[in-house]
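note to self: dont lose this again. the chain is below, predicted strucutre after it. 238 aa total, dont forget to put it in the shared folder this time
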Amino acid sequence: MSDTTTSTLAAALWDFDGTLADTEPLWIAAEFDLIGKLGGTWSEEEAEQLVGNSLLDSGSYILNAIGRVDLSPAWVVDQLLTAVVDHIRQHPIVWRPGAIELLESLSEAGVPCALVSASYRVLLDAALSQLPEATFQVTVAGDEVSRGKPHPEPYLKGAQIVGVAPERCIVFEDSISGVQAGVAAGALVIGIGGNEALREVGAAHVIRDFADVTLVQSADSTLELRLTSDCRVSLAHA
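---
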C-alpha cells in the first residue's frame, strides 16, 4: 500500500452501522426474526445484500424476496427499527475496535466529525446517548434525506452542514453502497472491515479496523492519520 499525502482534508464523516458500531448482527437477527414470523425464509447471503442500503430499499427487498407484497416497506422498516432500537436502549453498544479512541483524538485535534447513517433518527439518538456529548458536530439520519446511499446526498448534506467541501472530507465506510456514496460525493473514502471489494468500488484504502489507525500531531500542528505503517493521510484544520 503506497503513501498518501493530502493537505486539504479537514473533516471526518463516519458511517454508523458496521463502521462505528458493530450493529450489523442486530439488524440481521431482527430480519431473521421478522421474516420467520411472516412465514418466509432468509439467509446470511440475502442479509448481506442489505448492508449499507437505505432502510426503505431494504424493506422492499425483503418483501419481494419472501413474496409478501401485501405489506409495505415502511411497515418492515418500523418492525426492524423497533427491534434494533429496543436492543440498543437496553444494552451497551459494541463499538468497532479503536473507533472511540480515534473520535476522541480527532476531537482533541479540532477536526470536526459528522455521523452520516442510513439508520433513522430514533436509532441515532439512542446510540448518541451512549457517547460523550458533542462527539459529533453534525448527524445525518437516513430519514432526513430524500435519497439514501449509494446516492451521494447523505454525505453531501453532512459536508454542507459541517461547512467543509466534500472534497476536503475523509469518509469511513464498511459497505459497498456507503463507499459508492462517499466516492460520488467527492470525498476520500477509507474502507473499514478489511473487505477488499470496497477498493473495487472506489475506497482509497481498506483497513481492518480503527485499532490500526493513529492520529499524530507534529510540533507545527500538522495532523497525520496513519492507517498502516506505510499509508499516511495528512489532515488540515477546517
